[in-house]
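ok here's Amino acid transporter, seq below lol
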Amino acid sequence: MKNVFKKETVSTYLKADARLTKSLRARDLLALGIGTVIGTGIFILPGHEAALHAGPAVAIAFLLAAIVSGIVGMAYAEFSSAMPVAGSAYSFGSVVYGEIIGWILGWSLILEYFLAVSAEATGFAAYFNNNILESFGLNLPKALQAGPLEGGVINLSAVLIVLVVALIILHGASLSKKVENVAVVIKVAIIIIFIAVGAFYIKTSNYVPFYPQQFQTSPLGLGGISTAAATVFFAFIGFDALAANSAETINPEKNVVKGILGTVGVSVVLYVAFSFVLTGIVHYSKLNVDDPAAYALQVIHLNTWNKLITIGALIGIFTSLITMFFGGSRLVYALGRDGLLPAKMGVVSTKHVVPKNAILVATIVQAFFAGLVPLTELASLINAGTLLAFAFISFGVIPLRKRHDIQNKGFKMPLYPVLPCIAGSLSVYFIIMLPNITKISVGLWLVLGLVVYFGYGLRHSKLQNK
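and the structure came out like this:
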């Protein structure tokens, strides 16, 4: 009789992941983390969420999301310190909760990572098509600018950027980190320039009302801010991606912690300042566009700065694509490694020492969604998986501390067990605050995941067949 709650051992994962090359240091992880967080989340989402859910108070929504993410990040840091393995929440869950919970987390994160890459790609395409191609007098036919749901055939630019990133990922972590380290410095500098220049064009009247009445829904009038915060959580998945790279990190007990906490610290300052300046330049009701920063600079007739922010957005989204793609492909590799997906997914190529088959599968799925599905539809589906993982990992610190077979001489979450419970409870609250269509769609995805697990994974699981 097979036990779906059978727990994996850390030693098994460490042995399996020994094939991966350890080449990432703290600065590389910080670049990867910021590279993920400072992407579509900052260049696109503040506009949509200001217009649809929070008004200028979107800055508070980002602050709330960042604070919760920072607390959850500590839980991830403790897990990464105790278990420096590939697979992030999936592997962590398999060890502390049992295989079926690990599978549910892994299955949720597959959706999260793949759709996040597709969403980033459509965001990249919006800036590229609207602000780069048009400046040269080039206009792609409508059929090649959007998928069928928006009256086109395929979003060609989105598909092509996924393929470019796939080529970089196929050449291993070393090339990826070199691209990230250079690009992150450039885009952070451009964001700071936007904040500094834009501050001179703020109209205080645009902040009135700061939190519009129509968004003040239940509970306690915080519905709009809560929904906005819940919707932008996928922007903070950067530290989950960092945890997914633990197996390829030098001295992960210290470096993963620095990468995660450093990422949260930098991103909260940039997000809040960026959102505040953006909604000060343009009235929130006009910001429901895919390139709000570039649009804001057009409104105040700073066309030269408009091109600069466009370059920053493209670089920012590109680096975010790399990290998301990296994390998602490593997750598919981890599931293949354990037999829950076909074993070919767990094969590591000898030339570049990367899970080539997992990367190819990720490329096909991500390019498909990027080419055919609009950004807003993609973004709405991502966050439930993120928050589900946040909840399980936060609460998971408690059983982790009780495992005498797992030695952790590195980082430990402070204020135990109060802080893990607070982080887990807040994650559950934000799941509740997500739009109903998101919860229904992700629920159906989880049901499909259980069908795959009981139909294939349970029979082929290496853990079950030991």
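fwiw Residues 44 and 290 are 5 Å apart (CA to CA). kinda neat tbh
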